[in-house]
Design goal:
This protein has about 575 residues and is α+β, with helices and mostly antiparallel strands. It has three domains: about 260 residues; about 100 residues, no CATH class; about 120 residues, Heat Shock Protein 90 (2-Layer Sandwich), CATH 3.30.565.10. It has 19 helices and nine strands.
Amino acid sequence: MSSLRAALIALFAASVGMAAVMIALVVSSDHEDAKTLTATLGPFIGLSFCGTGVFAWSRRPHNRFGALMTAVGFAWFLAGLAEANDPWVYTLGAYLGPLYFVLVAHMLLAFPNGRLETTAARTLLAIGYLDALFVQLPFFLLDGDITDPADAPQNAWGLIDSPDSAQVFQAVSQLVAAVLIAWLAVQLFQKRRVASPPQRRVMAPVLWTGLVLSGALAVAVVSQLFGSTNLIATSPSLVSLITFAALPWAFVIGLLRSRYSRAGAVGDLVERLNAQGIEGESLRDALADALGDRSLALAFWSRGSERYVDAHGQPVDLPPATSRSRAVTEIEREAVPVAAIVHDAALLDEPGLVRAAGAAAALALENERLEAELKARVAELQVSRAKVIEVGMAERRALERNLHDGAQQRLVALSLQLGLAKTKLRDDPDVAERILDGARVELASALEELRELARGIHPAILTDRGLAPALEALASRAPVPVEIDAVPDGRMPSPVEAVAYFVVAESLTNMAKYADAEYASVRVLRENGYAVVEIEDNGIGGADPSAGSGLRGLADRLAALDGRLEVDSPPGVGTTVRARIPCA
């Protein structure tokens, strides 16, 4: 920033130097009649543009508007070379004279964000620069007459003596200029029409001044097009000169008007907040009135879910940082997020005022945030309860199916084997013995299946010995090495331990099925009243929490305890499953 400030100071110093050169040229000019007026007004206009442009540039370095205004000032000084007595310098000044008009059009069309928003604006300016720099060039090369006034120097660029042909190019240039000025007026009207109310308030002084300037120039160009006066060497009409000189000050007036009107509105907001309680839509309306943006919206930070929600507790997506039309100003209270004000991007010209309005309403916003967070939690609990019931029913059906297809079938087979052994016991003891050995194996398998089912419902080791031994048991049964990095000392509430256990169990199961991992790690930490469970693997990644029922079921289990599940699984990097469970 210091290097930019030094560069801008040097740039303004250069404009002061050019103003001094302009004064010297006017004072020594042999063809300038109104030397006092020109030597005073000319440098004043150029320095007004350069000074205001440098100020705007320093205030918003990434906005090209300040650079464009500065360029207008320097182009004005270059046009002042037409005061010189030397034919070459005089001709250069006459040739560059129309350039500052095109730069003014560029500045007006790019105001206030410094960008050309439409294809029509870009096309208009492309034609304007071509007309100013190339269409009129043959006029000079064909030895066009630029001696206006009569005692001015002769055209020094004339290569071919063909003034009649030169006049054709001059007429074409004037005709193109007239069309472009009319087109500019239309574009400025269109720009104002599509602007939002905050943008109109900022743009009004500059755009209206630009429209008056366009009208005055159109009259001047048309009169010269059908008259005998040379456009290139003719000074603008009095009206166009006054409005042109007023443009940088119109920008300053618009800036001050916007700043003071919004500051006053913020003061009114403070009085309204102190005089009466403002809540809900009334708070939004009060902030919209203070900032002059009826499209303003509020989002409230939900600390439980760590996301923004609306006043009804529903999640909201904030506009991206790349949005040109909408912007977000986040409000904090005691370094903790409270709310976000979604507003017109034009208000970024005065971000301090948006923050001032938010700070003035911070207490009311905090109250709204608490209410919105409560509604969000109620909504989440309603959804999670429904999902838990649904998951519970699904698990019961799965348990019934597993018992029917597994242990029950084995017990039925065991019963048949025992009956067969009974019939063989007297006639063929050896066969009966082999049947009983098979029945014993079948019984062991049935018992193992029942133990697996019991662990799936609630592992006994978790109840008897706690979370750490239960996780060690899970790790020992995993198909790849699993390291238990950390588990808190002491017992946590039973529901918390149960959810933490099943988060690890489901994550390791998914890793074995899909991740193609070589190792995994598990850690459980206590942080700020939460039990944080993290499972990492070095597999192929790409896990989608919404694609399978396992992770969705875990999210529902966690939601029932007001917890949250996060899955970070970039393809080719591995997967990290993180659960945060309230554990105060």
